[in-house]
Request: fold
Amino acid sequence: MSLLNIIQLGHPTLRQLAQPVTNIASDPVQQLIDSLMATAQQAHGVGIAAPQVNHSDRLFIVASRPNLRYPQAPTMSPTAMINPELVAHGEHQVKGWEGCLSVPSIRGQVPRYTEIEVAYWDRWGDRQQQILSGFVARIFQHELDHLNGLVFLDRVESTAELVSEQVYSERQKDEG
Ligand code: ZN
Reply:
């Protein structure tokens, strides 16, 4: 397990279609999962996708918990989602603030489905099917985009809905 370097916007790997993981039980995949979890925690991320550490694999971590970057986040144990799929979604999208460890210093209002049905393989090789809602559903959709070469900036409806991290934190304080 080691901390990994997070690549930033402009690095070509962030724009590639990531490839399916074929051997979940293998040491390299298991080590990548451990390192992604440690890297997300150290960077105060609530999720991280393998392409963000320059591995073009269909694998991400969802690790929602309150932290410096997302004080309101719900708590869950960090979960590796391998070859994930969005199976179905509700009709409603809502806009919410997102940031990205690969797009430093910027936050944007991003529309996402509030309720989704997802499927993935866990790190033990078992197929999981779940309903996700709210902030965790948002994280899933953000991370799935990374596997398809998209970043949250591609989903923002207007550049007027982008703000600096500093303005974002000032607004959060004002809202208490
Ligand atoms: Zn991201």
